[in-house]
Amino acid sequence: MEHNDISVGLDIGTTKIVAMIGRRNEYGKIELLGTGKAKSLGVHRGVVNNITQTIQSIQMAVDEAIAISGIKITEAVVGIAGQHIRSLQHSDYITRPNSEEVICDEDLEKLEKQVYKLVMLPGEEIIHVLPQEFKVDGQAEITEPVGMYGGRLEANFHVVVGQVSSIRNVGRCIKSAGLNLAGITLEPLASAEAVLSNEEKEAGVALIDIGGGTTDLAIFKNGIIRHTAVIPFGGNVITEDIKEGCSIIEKQAELLKTKFGSAWPGENKENEIVSIPGLRGRDPKEITLKNLSKIIHARVLEIIEQVFLEIKNYGHEEPKKKLIAGIVLTGGGAELKHIKQLVEYITGMDTRIGYPNENLAGDSDESLSSPQYATAVGLLMNGLNIIDKKNAKAVHQTVGKSSKEEENKEVIDEVEEPKKSIFEKWGDKLRDFLDNAE
Known about the structure:
5-stranded mixed beta sheet; alpha+beta; 11 helices
């Protein structure tokens, strides 16, 4: 049975791997058909460091999703993150041979291809080239140049760069787990897709996704992505500190953090105490919640300050670049008590917690609309968008054929071809790359 309207998002995180199968219902919302979750063992700070374990975890998550949904899946849209990701701004231009003709998609394509030729550091590869605004013959602030006359076409680009080997390893794991790559996306962009509204992107917003091993940042203004960054620590460093500070094992530290932890030490009274069973035959340990909160507070402070530095680097303090909608927190770290208040206190910016439930159908499982699933939902949405494009293209071609049969078919194929999104092109490139690496 052919499921051509179903997609799969696969979030390979540092603490968990989530596979989400879904499709759009008649209202355009996402209906989740099955979700599988496995502990992620072979990933450190967003980068695969143990191929065998990662493959096993992916298979576990995928098998669980298949068991729940009863649908056999063959491909997935995957997120990429990790400390090797960096972004830069770049402007480029082309001179058009004939300024009597209007600018078309091919021109944009040509300009974009030129950016892919940028010389990167050894071992790095360009992941995304995202056009921000265009200039035509010196006229600035054009968002859609197609259809305009002009000789010189310029654009500012947001270029996202990552390490070839890390990206290859992710591809390798997916292939070995028996899946094909339907597409690959930067994780903060996927999370943004799931939790931000168009109004927020227009007004200016910073999305902070606090994951297990990395904290991802994506900044939007005037509806366009302006800045991305991956900061190489997340919830894991908080757990690590609790473990050290209270001399307990990691499992207990993680439980303490999620059950009793708070980012704001003022909340706890001096006499609130949690008792933790000691290791084999030893006395239980008593830990005051005040101390626990102090440890968490110190670490969260550090993470937020790093992110705030990135927001300042983007230029939030300039009036034209002000992020009016403030900050949206998502990812598992956003579930920490009082983190919203702490972020508002440090940055002085309005803050809300981002839940991916706005895009999910009304009857979805409550637990899946928690911030820790934002990336998986975003990747699933991405996959559905790719399918929508393919379907639209197919319709377009059949309409063309019936009206003017074959001669038209050539033209339509040509016109439709460049519309492949950056992610798809990149996915194609990566797929060839992995097939050759076999």
